[in-house]
Amino acid sequence: MIETLIKEGVNVNVTMLFALENYREVAEAYISGLEQRVGEGGSIDRVASVASIFVSRIDTAVDALLDQKIKASNDSAEQEKLRALQGKAAIANAKATYAEYQEIYATERFAALRAKGARPQRLLWASTSTKNPTFPDLLYVEALIGPETVDTMPPATVAAFMDHGTAKRALTDGLEDAPKTIAALQEAGVDVPAVMQKLQDDGVASFAKSFENMIGSIQKKLDAIR
Questions:
Q1: Distance of CA 195 to the CA centre of its chain
Q2: Are strands 49-54 and 122-126 parallel, antiparallel or unpaired?
Q3: Was domain 2-193 assigned CATH 3.20.20.70?
Q4: How far is C-alpha 54 from the chain's CA centre?
Q5: pLDDT 10s digits, 118-163
Q6: How far apart are CA 47 and CA 181, in angstroms?
Q7: Rounded Cα distance, 30 and 110, in Å
Q8: Is residue 24 classed exposed, middle or buried when 0-12, 13-18 and 19+ CB atoms within 10 A define those classes?
């Protein structure tokens, strides 16, 4: 569907993404759609898309699993090791995704499209307000400031950033450490791919329910008018 819409020149926000593997599929669909549009003689200089990566929900899910492991352990050193991983999964995943973004859009394949006016499919950071009250309120916002990205924030987070936020490039800091953090979580017994898949499944189900409720509400109003 993404590929077809891009081929038709429809701008797309591909939302509710968590796993790096799913991001790769989305980027491939975007580039393939552009190539097909060029192949059919269409212009691509006005085609735009974003890939929306949900952030804070990852830490909420992963940290809950780490809490369970901490409570189940009697080894103080192991407990400390697990605590050190809390609040790290979401930013590590986002940075790993950005590293992948840099590689994808630096290829000769995309360079050929860029020469025809194509723009990269920007990464959009969603769910960037902190859910854990012990975390800094701008944890995700400040850590993910970087080129060719978009950050969606609720009003309270925007106000917080205007009050005490620091606007500096931070996204590219420590990109090489992101896979190490994910690996450490795996070694600690957190099935990161399974967590990501459940988050996506639950999110899609929630979005679908909201859409169905909206359609139902519209139908009721149409029935009343008739």
A1: 14
A2: parallel
A3: yes
A4: 4
A5: 999 999 999 999 999 999 999 999 999 999 999 999 999 999 999 9
A6: 35
A7: 11
A8: middle
